[in-house]
Specification:
- The chain has helices at about 15-25, 40-45, 50-65, 80-105, 160-165, 180-195, 215-225, 320-335, 365-370, 390, 420-435, 440, 455-465, 470-475, and strands spanning about 1-10, 30-35, 110-115, 115-120, 125, 130-140, 145, 160, 175-180, 195-200, 230, 235-240, 245-250, 255-260, 265, 270, 305-310, 350, 355-360, 375-385, 400-405, 410-420.
- The chain is about 30% helix and about 25% strand.
- It starts with a strand and ends in a 5-residue tail after the last helix.
- It folds into three domains: about 1-145 and about 270-335, FAD/NAD(P)-binding domain; about 150-270, FAD/NAD(P)-binding domain (3-Layer(bba) Sandwich); about 350-475, Enolase-like, domain 1 (2-Layer Sandwich), CATH 3.30.390.30.
- It is globular, with a radius of gyration of 24 Å.
- The model has no long low-confidence stretch (mean pLDDT about 95).
- It has 14 helices and 22 strands.
């Protein structure tokens, strides 16, 4: 068996692993990266990039269907060639993966170790049955994987995850999507627009990441007008019958319905890949889900020389967050025992549904829990249904809530659904990171006519509701929620 002694060992070769490896190399040449599967990132292979390729095809169909609203008509019936759709998805997906692999190929072969790592103790890793590594510092960057109820395994190959969708050669006739989160909404709507009979089922009323009940209810209603969406479904039976899956459920009116689908797409969440690392052989303190506790500013765990980054940390499973965490974890692993807090940017997330859903800063749930005793935040609102530019484009669906702090007038966060709100979310994330007040944000320029004028309306609504001044700020500083 091969024996290695290194300064830093990074477990995982995805976004977080690659980022941590490169950051650690800036401080020491003695770094190895261990990967059990194919190198490359979840985003490029089965996540954000192939899903956007499928969504882009679906949007092309939708544009044709919307054209009569402008008095524009095309001759003949729209034909969707599923084989050509999926060919482009896979072809472009492979290009994105290729760009990542080019970067991996530039890494010295001696720094890349193929195999699955397990902890023997706090400093020792066993990689399959061929290599034992003693590392002075270790970064866990093992990513995450889809999860679903164990009983669904009886569906066999009729049960799929998003990874499987992007390997299809042809589009199926029907799919039931379980989980109206980011993945479920994006893929469910895209498949529907591409001619696949699609039903999306959820549990507990969740719609994407939204926590503001007013925005969430609006989102469920508007998305549900286009395709079947029940965020709190009652499914009585789901069982395989031949090459189909039979589902009996109660519809939104409480009536019993039956359907047969080609596939059940499990979009019910992801779990960090830490359960097979042998963490029981370490002194790491774990949370209730078995994930190591880590400081969000340093990514340092309870064992000083072990760090964690990316989806494995179970903090914010987003690519830009994984990159930030990787940089912080890698730098601190490389420079250990010197530990420095890294920049953690304001939270921002986007669901590429249509209308899009976005979140910025503190969520409504977080603010409600923090300020529930004193009411030290207010909500500004705008509907996009009568917003000028949105109506011009026949995309006038949406609701935006912005949150501000009483006393200081500081912008706290936002939840929204609306046309192209990915752009509004970026503006708001920058304002949040700069800790701007509502008044300062309203001093910024707004062009006419643009969708962002709706943001100004919401900010003005919030401004009118806020009570500013030192006495109000002092009262809110004493709030038990603090």
């Amino acid at each position: 068996m091969k024996q290695l002694n290194v300064d830093v060992a990074v477990i995982g070769g995805g976004t977080a692993g690659l980022g941590a490896y490169r950051a650690a190399k800036l401080s020491t040449p003695s770094v190895v990266m261990i990967e059990g599967g194919p190198f490359g990132t979840t985003c490029a292979r089965v996540g954000c990039m192939p899903s956007k390729l499928l969504i882009a095809a679906a949007e092309a169909v939708h544009q044709l269907e919307r054209a009569p609203g402008f008095g524009v008509y095309s001759s003949g019936k729209t034909v969707i060639n599923g084989r050509e759709v999926m060919d482009r998805v896979k072809r472009e997906r492979d290009r994105f993966v290729g760009f990542v692999l080019e970067g991996v190929e530039s890494i010295p072969a001696t720094d890349k170790i193929q195999g699955y790592a397990r902890f023997i103790d706090d400093n020792t890793l066993q990689v399959d049955d061929h290599t034992r590594i003693v590392a002075q510092r270790i970064v866990i960057a093992t990513g995450s994987r889809p999860s679903w109820p164990a009983a669904w395994n009886e569906l066999g190959d009729r049960l799929i995850i998003n990874d499987d969708v992007f390997n299809w050669d042809e589009l199926p006739q029907s799919v039931a999507v379980f989980g109206p989160g980011v993945i479920g909404l994006e893929l469910g709507q895209a498949l529907h627009r591409l001619g696949v009979e699609t039903k999306v089922f959820g549990v507990g009323g969740a719609v994407g990441p939204l926590t503001d009940s007013t925005v969430r209810k609006y989102a469920a209603q508007k998305l549900g007008e286009e395709f079947y969406l029940d965020p709190d479904a009652k499914v009585d039976i789901m069982q395989r019958e031949g090459d189909k899956v039979y589902i009996r459920y109660q519809d939104r009116q409480g009536q019993t319905q039956e359907t047969m689908v080609d596939y059940v797409l499990a979009a019910t969440g992801r779990r960090p890949n830490v359960d097979k690392l042998g963490l029981e052989n370490t002194n790491l303190q774990l949370d209730a889900k078995g994930v190591p506790h880590a400081d969000r500013l340093t990514m340092q765990t309870s064992v000083a020389h072990i760090f964690i980054a990316g989806d494995a940390s179970n903090q914010l499973p987003l690519l830009h967050e994984a990159s930030d965490q990787a940089r912080i974890a890698g730098q601190n692993a490389g420079s250990f025992p010197e530990i420095n807090p890294g920049l953690r940017r304001s939270a921002i997330s986007v669901v590429f549904s249509d209308p899009q859903i976005a979140m910025v800063g503190s969520t409504f749930r977080e603010l409600n829990q923090k300020f529930s005793a004193c009411g030290c935040f207010e909500v500004g609102e705008v509907s996009f249904e009568n917003q000028g530019r949105s109506r011009v484009m026949l995309r006038n669906k949406g609701l935006l809530h912005v949150y501000g702090e009483q006393g200081t007038g500081r912008f706290l966060g936002a939840e929204m659904i609306g046309p192209e709100v990915e752009h509004i979310a970026h503006l708001l994330a920058w304002a949040h990171q700069q800790q701007m007040t509502i008044n300062q944000m309203l001093d910024m320029p707004f062009y006419h006519p643009v969708i962002e004028e709706g943001l100004r309306t919401a900010l003005r609504d919030l401004q009118a509701k806020l009570k500013l001044g030192e006495s109000e700020a002092e009262r809110c500083q004493r709030c038990p929620g603090e």
